[in-house]
């Protein structure tokens, strides 16, 4: 399906009145009674679906954050981690025998706002040592014009005439087993028990407004890809005085050239020439702390792993304790030798042979050197 804003021909920051005008214009254009072109009816349905989502602040915020995937399939509210199980259960089973009063009362009371998700990418160094990042989010806040009541200044909600303020109506349902009386949320006031005759122009009567906000997120040392940070009360504002949801920041860490992370340890490789490996040396190695000196013991073998203590990643929640930086050694043998180098190595090979080593002149280590 096309983007909902594109379907209505509006910008993503369009206010409720602009959305309503755009919907009416598009609906008139594609109404099946007016437009007989093939596909007009399907287009009309898509326009209706788009306006249904975007006219509600909660569903619009989920759509802006996650697209259609955030609408919970076919526009049903996203229940997250089973947060809506009780309401779902009561939708099917409440009301039979008058047992649904609790459900209606809960709908009239405060409702917590939705949690939001923010995906944030940081570099390798920032993940190791932590950083404070400024981010921008879009979320719902209590309307500053009506203070969340949804009513125009100087007015207020009035008692719903359909349910008499109870927020519930009784409906008879016929089934193969007989007729049942079911108590459901009032369709006029949606269970609130009140209606707004003169809605607030700023929020369209919803009591909530979508705003852009800058936040500073504190990222602790030692995080990794997949780490989830919770920022309390920075999700969508609640309705009817309910608490705000939370903002969850999911981190993704970029790789660093030459460095590989394994938990709290960091791995890298260095290549030595054969003389450094035989005689030993001191070299400079790039670490997350900058250049560090690494002692190469004489006789270091290819594939050896040398350790720089406490130059790895801090433990998450305990930045004093750090892992190690492990350096794997590769030894590069020469493919060509000049006359002087060959003479010196011939003498060394002869010296080893005289000491009882049985390596032929052109085999073993020296055979590899002269190849």
Query: How many DSSP H or I helices?
Result: 10
Radius of gyration: 35 Å
Query: Major sheet: size, sense and barrel closure?
Result: 4 strands, mixed
What amount of the residues lies in strands?
Answer: 25-35%
The SSE order reads: HHHHHHEHEEEEEEEEEEHEEEEEEHH
Quick summary of this structure?
The chain is an alpha+beta fold and 371 residues long. The chain contains 10 helices and 17 strands.
Description of the structure:
The chain is an alpha+beta fold. Among the domains are: 4-82, Helix Hairpins; 260-332, Urease metallochaperone UreE, N-terminal domain (HSP40/DNAj peptide-binding domain), CATH 2.60.260.20; 339-370. The chain has 10 helices and 17 strands. The protein has helices spanning 4-8, 16-30, 40-54, 57-66, 85-93, 101-108, 124-129, 274-279, 339-354, 364-370; strands at 116-122, 131-142, 158-159, 168-175, 178-185, 194-195, 208-219, 228-231, 247-253, 260-262, 265-273, 281-287, 290-296, 305-308, 314-315, 318-322, 325-332. The protein has a 4-stranded mixed sheet with strand order 10-11-17-14. Strands 1-9-8 form a 3-stranded mixed sheet. A two-stranded antiparallel ribbon has the order 2-7. The model is unreliable at 73-107 and 359-371 (pLDDT under 50).
